[in-house]
Structure formats: structure tokens, C-alpha cells
Specification:
Elements: E1 3-14, E2 17-28, E3 32-36, H1 43-50, E4 58-63, E5 66-67, H2 72-78, E6 79-82, H3 94-104, H4 109-122, H5 138-149, E7 156-160, H6 168-185, E8 188-193, H7 196-202, E9 205-210, E10 213-218, H8 220-225, E11 231-236, H9 241-248, E12 254-255, E13 261-265, H10 273-282, E14 287-293, H11 297-305
Parallel strand pairs: 3-8, 3-9, 6-7, 7-8
Antiparallel strand pairs: 1-2, 1-4, 4-5, 9-10, 11-13, 11-14, 12-13
Helix pairs in contact: 3-4
């Protein structure tokens, strides 16, 4: 397969802060590549460097075979970009913004006359094309931004946390559109996300970034297989956490968990759950909640970093 996005030892400093620290990436033509990590991990900074919006402090990157610094113009012509903080004029209508985007890309009026309505229909905005964008919901704005990024039919699409803040219905609709773009048009999609399910659902291959460094890379199936045993999580009262930890670590290695819970990798899985429950009962521990989960991407992140991805803080 042809590599269409490539980063080599990519570094970006903001003063004394190292936002991206030696990232190496390769994305093949026609794949959906998931870039997963918590807020503040460096995902958006990497995207801004790959899309020519930010110069690397050191290292190099190529998109579509072109260097992102010396051939920035060529890179911009072949990519579509929908950023998390995209600015859309709230006083313009959807159709006006589509025509403006076409002018900026040098697309003839005769072409956009057909392509514009087609794109707006694809993202479910036909009924709102003549409304001012200021009246759109958050989900509608995200879908409009996606349509605008596709007006010049780019072979490579960068989506930076496209569903952050969206309701479940809007999130599902955007997922379906990403799948259609990839399946029907063969568009290469570079997707950054902090949502485990989103990465699992859409991406054929995933790279996990934390504190500016890549910590894992591979297909979701392979990444989950590296965790090994399923995770048993037990919620108990604060007075029982220490005893519970002592009992449960006799059945498997402790794993990162939230406050008030104890988690282990349970060797032999479901066959040993009853043994754990009996041991906790014998130790006088009252169990509030118990669950056994197959390895997840959250387990992969915890295995790599020592903490959970879900429930991470806000972007810094």
C-alpha cells in the first residue's frame, strides 16, 4: 500500500512545554487511521503540523508525498480539514458558505452548483441550506464543516475530534458519513478522538498518544489482545478497598481503576469470578458492584500509561 501521511521524529515545543515528543507515524492510502488520546495529549498539535498550520520544532512530515513545510501549498490542495475549533461565520447560510469555499479553492461556479447541494444532502443539511449558520445546532455545524472540507474532493481528510460535544444521534450520523466517504470514495481519513468507542468503531488502525509520545500502535484487535486476561472490576466502600485489593490480587495482577474500585486481570476469566466473590465474602467485604469486561481500548491505554483514558480532564 502507498503511504500518504508520514511523520518522522516529529517534535513541537511551546516555550518550555514539549507538546509533541518524537512522533513517528505512517498512514496508508484508503485507511481510516485513529489517533487516540486524552485531552492535552498532543493530538491536535500533530494534526496542525500535518495540515501545514503549525511548523514542527524539529522532525519532518509528508502528506501525499509532499513536505508539509517546503511544499505546503501542494499539501493544502490535496487535503480536507475539519478542525475542532473551526470558525464558521454565523451570519452566512449553509449554501453561501459552500459557494465561498468553492471560490477559495478555485472551483468553477458551474461545478459547485451541483456539488454543493450534493454534499449538503450527504450530511443531512438540505432542509437548512438557506438558514443562517448561527441558528444551527452543534451537530449541524459539525456536519456543515465536514461538507465544506470535502468541496474540492480531497483524497485525504483530517478530522480533529469531530464529535466532541455532540449528542448520540448526531455522533452516529457523522460516523456513518465517515464510513461512506471511506467505503464509497476511498478517502483516507486521519481521525483524532478521545472517545474509545469512536476509535474502535471507525478505525482500522490506531495510534495511542499520551503526553506527546506514542505509547501503542496497531489494529484494535491486536492492541486489545496485548492486554491478556479480562478485567474484573469490583466497587466497594472506602473502608474495604485495602482488604479487597489484598484478596483480589491473589487472583490476578492489579490494574488501574477509579477511586472506590479495585480491578485485576482475572486469569481464566468468568470461571474464577465465583471464587473471587467467595473470597471477598470470607474477608467480610460487601461488594456494591461487580463487572467482568473483555479487554478494551481503555485497558490498552491503562496498560501503557498506568491510568484510565475515560474521564480525562479538559483540554489544556
Amino acid at each position: 500500500m502507498t503511504v500518504v501521511v508520514e511523520a518522522t521524529d516529529l517534535v513541537r515545543h511551546f516555550g518550555d512545554v514539549v507538546a509533541v515528543d518524537g512522533v513517528d507515524l505512517q498512514v496508508e492510502e484508503g485507511e481510516v487511521f485513529g489517533f487516540l488520546g486524552p485531552n492535552g495529549a498532543g493530538k491536535s498539535t500533530v494534526v496542525r503540523m500535518l495540515t501545514t498550520l503549525l511548523h514542527p520544532t524539529s522532525g519532518s512530515a509528508r502528506v501525499g508525498g509532499c513536505d508539509v513545510i517546503s511544499q505546503a501549498g501542494e499539501v493544502r490542495r490535496m487535503i480536507g480539514v475539519a478542525l475542532q475549533d473551526a470558525a464558521i461565520d454565523p451570519l452566512m447560510t449553509g449554501s453561501e458558505l459552500m459557494r465561498l469555499q468553492a471560490v477559495l479553492h478555485g472551483i468553477p461556479r458551474s461545478v459547485i452548483k451541483t456539488r454543493g447541494p450534493e454534499l449538503l444532502e450527504r450530511v443531512g443539511l438540505t432542509a437548512a441550506v438557506d438558514r443562517r449558520v448561527g441558528t444551527y445546532s452543534g451537530g449541524m455545524r459539525r456536519r456543515l464543516d465536514l461538507a465544506l472540507s470535502l468541496v474540492h474532493e480531497p483524497p485525504i481528510l483530517f478530522l480533529d475530534e469531530p464529535t466532541t460535544g455532540l449528542d448520540p444521534t448526531s455522533r452516529q450520523a457523522l460516523w456513518e458519513e465517515v464510513r461512506r466517504l471511506n467505503d464509497e470514495l476511498g478517502t483516507t481519513v486521519f481521525l483524532t478522538t478521545q472517545y474509545l468507542e469512536e476509535a474502535d468503531q471507525l478505525a482500522g488502525r490506531i495510534a495511542i498518544i499520551d503526553a506527546g509520545k506514542l505509547v501503542r500502535e496497531g489494529t484494535p484487535t491486536v492492541l486489545k489482545s496485548t492486554v491478556g486476561a479480562p478485567t474484573l472490576r469490583v466497587e466497594v466502600g472506602p473502608e474495604h478497598v485495602e482488604t479487597t485489593t489484598t484478596v483480589m490480587t491473589g487472583f490476578g495482577a492489579e490494574r488501574p481503576s477509579r477511586e472506590g474500585r479495585v480491578a485485576i486481570g482475572l486469569d481464566e476469566g468468568a470461571a474464577r469470578v465465583a471464587d473471587v466473590v467467595r473470597a471477598l465474602d470470607a474477608a467480610g467485604v460487601t461488594v456494591i458492584h461487580l463487572e467482568l469486561d473483555a479487554p478494551s481500548l481503555d485497558d490498552v491505554f491503562a496498560h501503557a500509561t498506568g491510568r484510565r483514558l475515560e474521564g480525562s480532564g479538559d483540554e489544556q
